[in-house]
Amino acid sequence: MAKLLEFQGKEWLRKAGLRVPVGRAASTPEEARQIAAEIGKPVAVKAQVLAGGRGKAGAVKLVDTPEEAAAAAAAILGTEIKGYPVRYVLVEEKLDIAKEFYASITVNSARTARSPMLMFSTEGGMDIESVPEEKIFRYNYSSLFGLESYEAMDLLSKAGIPNDQLQKFAAFLTGLAAAYKKYDCFTLEINPLVLTKGGDLVAADCKMDIDNSSVYRHPEMGIEVARDFGHEPTELDIIGWNIEKIDQRGSGFVMSMGFDEKSPGYIGYHPIGGGSAMMGMDALNAVGLKPANYADTSGNPVASKVYRVAKVVLSQPNIEGYLLGGFMMANQEQWHHAHAVVKALREVLPKKPGLPCVLLLCGNKEEESLAILREGLSNVEGATRVEIYGREHVTDTAFIGQRMLALVKEYREEKQRQGKSSGS
Ligand code: GDP
Ligand code: MN
Q1: Does pTM surpass 0.90?
Q2: Most buried residue among 9, 212, 348, 421 by CB atoms closer than 10 A?
């Protein structure tokens, strides 16, 4: 999902009419000082990363003066939390907390529900995973009619909110459900939802994930990449995302896997389909090779899209091979893949002569596709280690891995010989 940082999510909540603490994001200690001075009272300085548990990690600091806010920002900015570099801190009014609650909405994809699901607990502030089950209250509401006030009150009452507070809490939850819908969220989590000593309900934290498929409906959010990587998007990730973004026909997925573009044993990886991709990884891992990247061209993509993916996969410096991993009897017409891969390899192999290429392509229009590969890659400059396989090896990970390894060994020896002769 397209995850927003806390300060971004809170901004959208504010625009949807929900109460959030007064504050803004800062990227320098000096900015943090200014914001704290503007607020004019004690503030919370909070690291902005796409990871929870900042409280425990010491990345939420409560301070009294602008100078202390600057010092807190200086201590937090530039550090890393769970692998995410901290580029911003949120400086916002410190809340006078009477009690912390938990509220969230997510998609309940269970066959019996298929609806948004509201979750509420009086035990806020900690990981919801560590809240005892009997303290968590769930309610599936209609995606058509939204969350009605009486439904929210019913749930809140069961959760133990006293009668005289029900209206206020229900207003917050129906507002949250409206924001959830307005922004096409997948998950919207407020933890803690703070009841202040003054009796106000304030969203003290916000995790907002926009449904990837709906990101195009929200240009106002300026989301660059509607995809989860589990790391900061790399150049490869962004290029990969753009292949997908400009053409919706079938999937053309490319993503980094931590290849440093130097280490030996990495193969430009072009699997077809998710399960097939797992099998291809087995094939490589079993012989001590590794996928340089993740990819997937399935769901019947057009040849132009497959070609772009192949080119990006092949563009990675110092890969020792290219694996087209069609470890499945695909029902998409494989000749689009064949044409795409032929075009990509005809362009790349003259520049990477002798690069090991193991091409496994099975399924619909297989014979025609293999013929396209064979014809298209014969008499191509640099195409000296191209092996083409079909259905007789469709699940044969051991064989495909061994063929890849054999070619990689030859390729390395050839490169060594060339290095020696050019060095002498
Ligand atoms: P997380 O740990 O990454 O989820 O970060 P949170 O924003 O949820 O902060 C963790 C904890 O810090 C909260 O549960 C609160 O107890 C505390 N906290 C956060 N903001 C404030 C604030 O404005 N005032 C006070 N008093 N405590 C806060
Ligand atoms: Mn939190």
Answers
A1: no
A2: 9
